[in-house]
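Teaching assistant here, posting this on the class forum so everyone can see the example we discussed in section. The complex has two components, and the goal was to see what a joint structure prediction looks like when all of them are supplied at once.
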Amino acid sequence: MAPAGAEMLGALGGVVRTVGIGDFVQAPEALLALPRVGAYDAPNVERILELRADLFITVASQAGATAHGRLSTLGIEVMALDTQTHDGVFRALADLGARIGAADRAAELAATMRMELTAVRQRAAALPRRKVLFVVDRDPLFVAGPGSHIDRMIEAAGGVNVAADAPNAYHRLSIEAALERLPEVIIDTSSNGASAPRGRLKGDWARWSILPAVRDDRVWQVDPSRLVIPGIRLPEMTRLMARLIHPEEFGEPAAAELAR
Amino acid sequence: MTRQDVRSLGAGRVALWCGVVGACLLAAIALGVSFGAGKVTLVQLLPWGPPASDVDLDILLRVRLPRVLLAAILGGALSVAGVCFQALLRNPLADPYVLGVSGGASIGGVLALVLGASSGMLRDLGVPLMAFAGALGALLLIEWVATVDRRLTVYNVLLTGAIFNAFSSALIYFVQSLATLEELRDIVVYLMGRFPVWELERVAPVALICVPVLIALYAMSRDFNAFSLGEEAAQQLGVDVERVKRRTFILASLLTGLAVSVAGLIGFVGLIIPHVLRMLLGPDHRILLPTAFLGGGAFLVLSDLAARLLIAPGELPVGVVTALIGGPFFLYLLRTHRRRYGF
């Protein structure tokens, strides 16, 4: 089971019927003691059969297509959730709810999530839009581009993605282009160690003192798990994004809130 | 070429050709600094040009200039390493990449990354040192395996190089399978190769390592000329064959290891440039070595410019560009010179 699916399953009350989890699952707590059955794109077919699973929840991905087909032919139902987009998250929630007999709970959850998202969006709409650079990897520089879940959150949280013209959702960007666009906020998720320093920290970006983000002290070091895996925590993530872009309005996030 | 011909090489000719190829390098550097994903150009530094903002200045002087200089140094280093391998192995196809020396360097670097050299001083020193050791190890192995009757044949060199490259990629995949997610990313980035965003202060040490190595290699250029007559003939001409060989292997591996550890696998620079220069200027190493440095620098600066511009504001690894040019060129050499190479 993939991380986004695991979180959704937890919220829908499906934990007790789960027999195994994917290698990258970090939440909810109740699932973590279960056996690990491989990554979303490379499930360990033998282990999954051994655990007598009848439903395999994963994310839709080209990388996993062959292995998923193999599981289907062995009689295990594969549910590939598309959680890359916001619409996809809501669709996946409804589908999963229907499949495990928790449709009402899923609808309730979706309504609350939509309400919370609208609240953030409305509050951010009144604020000046800040130019945001979202860093996935620093050297070489990879950034969140158009169509990514991050791009959508930046927009909802009152920012403008400076890499909005990149050709892909996640793309390598020349450092020259990044500097030239003069980002006012830099959100750096490139170091994902559990002990990496988090918070309002310039790190390597301190070199580029001409950038408004560096000058105005709006460079954030954030653990990727706080922002990059879309799913049930979408409202929470969007709120965090708003706090990173407009801390004076939404409240300064503490370092612990940015760590894994 | 006899020893008499070698002697008669005029200092004027060396100076002339160094000047010509050096001018190409300067032009390449000017072009490299002029264009990039950012809109600023070199013209804006001139007093009568349109003014440059602070960001533009940073892009020009702190992003592009160090990178272009790094490309010039490493391109020169790889090209010189190619000339040396070709002289010693008496084989025109002996490029660090084809030989598997770069592959050996990448194994060394990857092992250093995984074996705990993940940060700070240890990494800054450990990765280049291990890359150097890997390059040297690969070279010794290839020399040991591929030498038949004290001579490396084209077949043997290409076969050994191909097998060693296949072996080294298997070994790297093996290490990757054991690596953590964090290490995996380091490895992929390292192998893909990129010019790091360094300040000039960090480029300077790379140049400082290269200069004495290049001088030491240049001091042996007469010995290389003697090598082209065969090892026995060189011995008879008073060359301490084993000593020259040992030194050259170490120095050329150092250059290769340095290039791989800074910028990843960059292929074919050491093949194309020496070959073109040999066609233009003849086989004398006293002229070949300095022009190979300047020409290799110019070639890598231009390849990097292409890598930066082709999909801007994205970027290609520079090794992709050199391999796309170098691969077909290599096949062309094999095809047109197959008789001379013994096919």
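For the discussion questions: The first strand of chain B starts at residue 147 and ends at 148. Strands of chain B lie at 147-148, 151-152. Think about how each of these relates to the inputs above.
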